[in-house]
Amino acid sequence: MNLKSHLLFTFYTVYVLLVKVMASKGKVRGLSGQYPLVQNVTVTEGGTANLTCRVEYNDNTSLQWSNPAQQTLFFGDKKALRDNRIELVRATSSELTISISDVSLSDEGRYTCSLFTMPIRTAKAYLTVLGVPAKPEIEGLTKPALEGDQITLTCSSQGSKPAADLRWFRNEKEVKGAKVVNPMGKTFTVQSFLQLQVDRNDDGVAYTCRVDHVALSQTPQQATEVLEVHYAPRVEINPLHSVPLEGQYLRLECVSKGNPSPDPVMWTKDGGDLPDIERMIVEGRDLTFTSLNKTDNGTYRCEASNHLGTSSAEYKLYVYDPNAVGQHGTDHALIGGVVAVVVFVTLCLIIVLGRYLARHKGTYLTNEAKGADDAPDADTAIINAEGNHAHAEEKKEYFI
Fold first, then answer.
1. Cα–Cα distance between 210 and 165 in angstroms, integer?
2. What are the tens digits of pLDDT across the range 124-156?
3. What is the pTM of this model?
4. Helix (H/G/I), strand (E/B), else coil: 242
5. How far, in Å, CA of 19 to CA of 21, rounded?
6. What angle do CA 96, 67, 15 make, to 5 degrees?
7. What separation, in Å, do the N-terminal and C-terminal C-alpha atoms of the chain show?
8. Does residue 162 have a cis peptide bond before it, meaning omega lies within 30 degrees of 0?
9. Which residues are CB-contacts of 357 (< 8 A; sequence separation ≥ 6)?
10. What b-and-e string marks burial along 306-339, b requiring 16 or more CB atoms within 10 Å of the CB?
């Protein structure tokens, strides 16, 4: 303790003794309305904390700030502790505000504001220091990974207080990991584990570990690793023309996907080499026929390979005669026209026959009811109807 601090401490001790003596003689009146008012403070490690103590009614009684170790920081406007980080902001009869810059975790605790009335009144403000988590690190990534491998990515971040939260993202989509928190003194080390069954769809995917913490509200910390996956090729053949015609151009596209890239590819016909390399041209992965003919018929194979495996695809080529294709088209049109005419004639016959049957049925019913229309009552109608039948039979027999 330096000389200045010693003198302040001595002055404070003498002052307390004088207050006690005068109080015992009844010469000091306690002021029941005087209470120091403080507020808790939260600050990020490395930041600045302001501690304010106020009194609503004061008769020039001194205010004092002391730290959690009960060391006096300021007595009124007099600095008591030699610490360059601690400065006076404001000192009046009703307020004492001090600042602590470059705050560390060791500064956390209860700070006391004392008002030297009789008795001495105090208020305590708790200073909370947030530990800033370090930038996360990702471990466990094998470059390159092989399709089918099972790997575990580990994300770690140290120095957080309270414990940080770690989140995983596959590109922009969040995926769930397993979190483990380990206390390290006043701070925490946080880890998160992500297990992957690697396949070819993971090639080129970015896995990001992000740290969420109250001390990082503006600038979240994160780390990203891009996964490289090696896998055997897969092959398919896409013809760029639907109907191969004799004398025309044809290109067969060999689409091969693998990592490492399976270049170059190999084209064969019916298990052997291409027979006419002047008309059958291999350009990159494509096979081009400059002019098709019937001798080109056969099975063409595209084969691609890398150090992980080999894959192939086949295309059966049949070259059509352009004239035959046109004649077949004419025959089909003629057959379609004949079928349409037959259907139309059939529908017309059905309609005519239906109208004929309906008309004759109406005539029969009218002749049957003719006797009933001329009869004065029901009995006479029946007799007339029977008579009509009899006359009809007589006419029929007479005619015969």
1. 8
2. 999 999 999 999 999 998 889 999 999 999 999
3. 0.64
4. coil
5. 6
6. 65
7. 158
8. yes
9. none
10. beeeebbbebebebeeeeeeeeeeeeeeeeeeee
